[in-house]
User: Fold these one by one.
Assistant:
Number 1:
Amino acid sequence: MDTSFLSATILLILITDPLGNIPLFISALKQVKPERRRRVVFRECFIAFSVLLTFMFFGKGFLEVMHLTDESLRVAGGVILFLIALKMIFPGEGGHGGNQLSGEPFIVPIAVPLIAGPSAMATVLLMSTREPERILEWVGALTLTMLVTLLVFLFSGRLQKLLGEQAITALERLMGLVLTAISIEMLLGGVAAYIKKLA
C-alpha cells in the first residue's frame, strides 16, 4: 500500500480519533480547574507527540533487536487497526465513560493511551521502517495530526455542544468503517509480501 503525506496524515487522525475521544477527554478533565485545562491539553499533546516521535525514530533499531520483519509488523499493525476499528463501530458498554479520574491527569490516560495508543505506535513504527528515507514526511504528518488533536481537545466542550452526542458517535463509526478498510489493506499487503518472500 503506497502511502502519501496526505494519506499518512488521514490515517494517523483516524487512529488517534480525537472526535471520538471527546467524551473521555472531557470526563478526564472534570476534576481539573478551568484555568488549568488549556495547559494540561498542551502538556498531554506534547507528551503524546514525544512518545510517537520516539517510536518513529527508534523503531527500526527496536525491530532489529527483537528480530522482527517488516512483514510481521504490517500484519500485526493490520490486526491491531482492525480491532480498534471494530471498537469504534461497535463500542462496548461503558467504553468511553468507564474511567473516572480523581485529580489532574498526567500522561495516563490522555497522552497514553488516548492519543498515543498501541495502534498509533504500531503505525508510526511501520511508516518509519517501511520508508525511512521519507522520515521528514512522516514527522510532518504526525505533527499535523497532533495539531488537529490539540485543536479538537481545546474546543472539545464547544464541539460536543455543537455536534451533539449522536453526531460524534456517527462520525466515530464512519471513521471506524474507513479504518477497517485500511487495516484489511495493510493485513493483505503484509501477507502478500510474506508469500512473495517465501516464493
Number 2:
Amino acid sequence: MSDHLAGGYDLAIFDLDGVVFLIDKPIPGAAEAVERLRADGTSIAYATNNASRRAADVATLLTGMGVSAAPAEVLTSAGAAAALVAEQVEAGSPVLVVGAEALRAEIRDAGLTPVESAEDAPVAVVQGYGPEVGWKILSEAALAIRAGATWYATNTDRTLPSPRGPLPGNGSLVAVIRTALDREPDVVVGKPQPALFTTAASLAGAERPLTIGDRLDTDIQGAVTAGMDSLLVLTGVSGPKDLLSAPAECRPAFVAADLSGLFRPADRAVVSAAAVEGWTVTRDGDRAVLDGSGDPVDALRLLCGVTWDGVPPANVTGNSAAATELLTTWGL
C-alpha cells in the first residue's frame, strides 16, 4: 500500500495548460513531479485540448522546459479530430480547417485535403484553437456549415490560462459561429468527451489511471465521464469558488494546490473530507460557519462536504480572522 496519492495509480494523465505549464513557462515543480512518477514506475500521458500543436511538437516543447515527454505519450484534440473525420468521410475529401497549421497538418496526414474556402465544397469543417484565427476564416466556416458541411470542434474550452489571466479559447471562437448560425457543433472531440482519457489508458495498458487537470468543465468532467479518478490542481483556470459550487459531473476525487499534492497521503487530498487539521465547519440548515486556521486546501476540502450537500457557497461565513480572510480571498 503506497503512502502517497500517486502510488495508488499506474498511469498519470496530465492536462498541459494550467497544470504543467502556463503558455511557455513550466509551472514550478512540474518537471520534478513527472520524474518522481517515472522513478516510481508510473506511466505518463499528456492529454490536451489545445489543437495548435502536434504531438511531436508538444513533446519537444515539454522537453525544452525540462519536463520529460515522448511523442507517443502526447494525445491532442487535433490528432483525435483528424482521425475521427477520416473515419467518417471518404479519403481525400476537402475539409475546411479553422485553426493553426498543426490542425491542417493533422488533417493532411489523415488522408484528407485541407481547404480554406466554402467554395471548395468541404464535406466537413474542423475548428480548433489558433492565435491567428480571424473573421475571414470564421465566415468561410459559417458558410460551409450552412451549406451542409459537418461541423467538428476540437474542444470548447471558453478560455486558456495565462500568466496575465484567462484568455479567449477555442470555445469562444466556436461561440462566434454558434451565434451566427444559432446551432451547436455536430461533434465536439476533446475533453470533456472521454476519448482522450480512454485512449491514453488503452495505449498504456493501465488499469488504475488518474487524471490531473485544472479545469472542472473539461479535465475533471472528462475523467468522471470516463470513469476515472481525478485530481484538480489550483494552478490554472478553476479556483476554490468554482470547486465549492461544482455540479456532480464535475467533481474531482482529490484537490491540491499544485502537483506536489500527488505525493501527499491520499486522505489529505480527498475532497469532501469529514474532518481536517486546523479547521472546523459548523452547519445550521442552509448556512455554514468556517472556523480555525491552517492549510487553505484543507479548508476547501472540508467546505466541499457542506456545499456539495446543499449549502450555497455564498452562505458560508468565517468565525476566525484566518477563515474570514480565506473566504474573502476566494470571493465569498
Number 3:
Amino acid sequence: MSKAYPGTQALDDVDLDVGPGEVVALLGENGAGKSTLAGILAGLTEPSAGEMTWLGERYRPPSPGSALEAGVALIHQEMRLLPELSAAENVVIGRWPTGAHGFVDHRRLLAEAAEVLQSLGFQPDPETLVRHLSVAAQQQVEIAKALAQNAKLLILDEPTAALGQSETEALFSRIRELKERGHSFIYVSHRLAEIRTIADRIVVLRDGRKVAEHESSDVEVDRLVTEMVGRSVDRLFPRMPDPAEDVVLEVEGLTGADDRFRDVTFSVRAGEVVGIAGIVGAGRTELVRAIAGADQATAGSVRVSGRRIRTGSVPEAITNGVVLVPEDRRHHGLVADLTVGDNTMLTNFSKVMRHGRIDRSRVAQLGQRVINSMKIKGRSETRAEALSGGNQQKVVIGKWLELGPRVVLLDEPTRGIDVGARAAIYDVVRGLAEQGLAVVVVSSDLEEVMGLSHRIMVLAQGAQQGIIERSEMTPERIMALATV
C-alpha cells in the first residue's frame, strides 16, 4: 500500500498480512505511517496505490461503514461513543432492534447488547450512561460495538494509553479469548514492553516504509527502538539530579469532592520528582487538579514555599507558581486550531500586550522563544493541530514555563507519544529538576514513573497507601499497594 499527499509520501509500498487468531503489532514513531495504514484498512483513507484482499476477496472499502460491514473495525485511541446514551445503546447504535409497530424493542436491545458486553467481562449495568463509565469500561463498549457487527479484524490504536496495569491485563485477557474464537488484531502501541506480552508478530514502520518484520514478539526493546527511530536511544530515562533539602510543595490531609481522594499528605523538594502511581480511578488526576486549583478540595491544605494557597482557584495557584500539564492535552492543554504563538500567549498575555492591545510581533517572538527552548519542530505560526503529539506536549509545557513556576504537575506526560519523543519529554523533566523546580508526575506506565521519580506515592481507591523511595522501587511493590 502507498499513500501520497501533496509534498508528502505518507506510506510507501508497505506489505502487511494478518492471519486468523493472530495479533500483529504495528510499531513506529509518530509520522511513521501507522495511522495512514490503519485508516486505509478501515475505509477512512483512500490509498494512492496498492491492493488488498480480505478473506480471499479483493478489498477496498470506500467508507468505514463498508469496512465494518466486511468485518474490519478500527478502535480509536480517543473513543467515539455517545456519552448521553447507555452502554447498551452505544453497542447497537444504527442497528436498533424494532418491534411489530416500528418502535425500538428495548428488551431485545438490552439482551443483544448484554450478551456481547458480558462476553468481554463488562461489569457495570449495560443501562449505565457512557459518561459514567471508566475509560476501561468505555473501551469494552467500543470493542463490543465492533463485535456486535461481526468484526473479525480489530485494529486497536493505543488501546492501553489511558489504562493502568490491572486494566491492561484485563484487556489482554479479552484479546486472548477473542483470538481463540478466531478474531484477529492489528495492535498499534508505543509501549514496547507490552508488545512482547500480547503480540504474535511485529511490523516496524519508519518514514512511511516497512523497515523490519519479526516472526515473534521475543525481540529486545533496544533493537525495536533503534528500528523505529533509526538511531540508538541509549538511555531512555536520564539520570536525575539529587534534590535540594528545601521543601517547595506541601500537601497535607487533602480530600477531594465525593471522596475521589482523601487525606493525602506528601511533600516535594526543590529539584525532586515525585511520581504518583495507581490504577485508573485511584484519584490521581483529581488530586493534581485540586493542587492546581482546577477542583475544590473539601479538607486539607496546599502550601508552596510555606505559603498556604486556596484550592479551587486556578489564578491563585498560578500566582503562587503552581501549573498543571493536563492528561488530555488536545482538549484541556491546547487550542488545536490556534498557532504555537497564540497558544503560548494564552498564559502570558502580560508579555505580548502593548498599549492595551496584543502586539502580534511579540506573540511571534514569544512563540519562537518557546520553540527554541523546548526544541519544538515547528514555527510560531504553525497550528497546534499540525504538530506531532510530542511537540504538542512541549508547547503545553513551554507555555507554562514562561511564567517561571515553582511547581510543575505533569499528568500522563507521554500519553500517546512515540518512543523518540518520550525520550525528549524525559529530558525536559530532567531539565525542570535541574532548575530546582518541584515536579509531580502522574503516570499509568510503571516503567516511566519508576524511571523518572525520586520517590513514588501510591494511591488506591482514593486512599494514600504509601510512599516508596527510589532504592526500594519494584513493579511488584507498587502494584501490591495499588491493588489493595
Number 4:
Amino acid sequence: MSQKTIARLERLQQLNSNRQWINHDLYRLMYQEDLYIIAYERIKSKPGLKNGQ
C-alpha cells in the first residue's frame, strides 16, 4: 500500500471534520488502486463478519 494514499486519506479525514471545508477533487481518489486495497483490508478485519461474505 502506498503511504502517500494513506496520508492523503488521513488528511481528508482531518479536513472533513471542518463543516466549512468542501472537497472538490474527491473523485480523483477513485482512480487510486491503493484506496480499494485499504478499504478491503479495513472491511475484512472487522469483527462479526462471516467468512465468504
